[in-house]
Give the backbone structure.
Amino acid sequence: MKKILGVDAFTCRRMRGLIAASIYNDLSQNELETLQSHLDACPSCRKQAAALQRVAAFIPVGAPVLDEDLWPAIRRAARRSEPDRQLTGLRFGWRASLAFSLCALLVGGFTYGVYRSYTMDETPVVAQESQPLENDLAAVAAMIEDHDYVSAYRRLEKALEVNPKSPLAGEARVQLADLAYSKLNWYAEAYEAYDTLFRENPALFSLKSECISRRELLDEARVYDYAPLYALDAARRAGEDSFERLESLVARYPGTLTASLAAEDMARQSLEAGLPGAGESHVAAMECAKERCNNPVAIARLKLEIGHIYMRELKDAAKARSFYNEVATFEDKTLATMAEGSLAALEGPAE
Amino acid sequence: MKSDQTNWQDLTDKELALALKQGEDEAFEELVRRHQGRVYAVAYRLTGNREDALDVAQDSLLKAYQRIEAWQPTGSFLPWLLRLTTNQAIDFLRRRKRQRHEQLDETFVGETEHAPIEPSVSDTGQRVRAQEIDERIREALVVLSDTQRVVFVLRHFEGLQLSEIAEELGCTVGSVKVHLFRALKKLQKELGDLYEKDSGR
């Protein structure tokens, strides 16, 4: 039976919740009818409903955009704060299986050692040590093929703990660092791994230009707790917003190597978007990217990149100088100093 | 049981949360990647700046991981997570408020009392105006009671149903509606001068 609602204060008070819910269309049909009947009869509540409707309409619902991936920081924080409940395969189940694997490895190694001591005394010690890492590297290769990068990383990490001096340790460290950097985006771990490689296997490290450049990049990014690199990852995953995110990253960290990587991404995206002229050359693609930018700091950074392309790839010192000169007078001190440094290098005595 | 081949991206929130409860930590990575944007958005609306919002979002997600045992499979995961985020943000705001009181009492008072905003006259007036409005909205949200703020943020910004919010808060839908009404009333009082000006111009 439908109630006839009066317009006394008690009824008005009862209508408040319905008014609020009606603003968000969160009422049942019955509630809607009840409210409507009341509003038809009550000018005060009608006015109230209209006023609240206005304030709700005034407050924009657009969401602030997250410009970095929180996962790496959360994973690190969890590992620090919660020894009993750690992330990414570090919990009891995994640890139990790891302990089992290590026991198996140790028992196996011991048995193998005893067997070797009886049968192959003349075999060099190195050969005994390298065997376990060989197996690990083979297992890791299979895991990588299956895209199980976390397990591969853990396997390498533990194998290196057991066999840090193996002749294959350098190779394992390269794989560990590469996995952390390019597959898992675990930048703190990647830096540690490249740095260990640099210290423990300097000869191998010096042969790998990618390791050298990544260590340099990570060393710089760790000052910011790797935020520029996480922002780069987030920007690359941002689909249609990718270019804007990259621009924002460049503007936020203009003096970093990560900004240079982001600028290259912006040039590549301009090329892939088929912008007029972008496909003509590297410098043209970077010019197109610069034209798409709105942020003055990002524009200045891309000008610096264009200067570098003229200097390093096209050997056109005059063009490079003109771009560097523009940036050298820019208000951002970091970029201005970088441009001055490049100008000084240009003017310096030729080797 | 865990499978190295599990494609976490194909699972629903509930399946992921259940897997996490059962010890599959990799499910949590997918939950974080899926919802970190919304968690951050809630945190940002309540704290009002990027750095604090990042801290709150990170703490909230970490707490979700640590307290997953408390999540009930009968409910949805997202409202639980957002509720946890709002709690975390409220705790943060209380700490910040207390610190400010301790450090410089007048500063806090100054921040909660608003002089009327004069219309912007420069070419970038619209942008400046938008920033002013954003700031005023954030400050107005701080004026709400904790429950009012939670209800308003989850309904207005996150679009959760009132019944979902009630489930999360452990109260009736009727009570949530009243909190929402009071929140809107307070916001009307705090922000009325802004949109009256806009409509008058």
Summary: The mean pLDDT of chain B is 79.
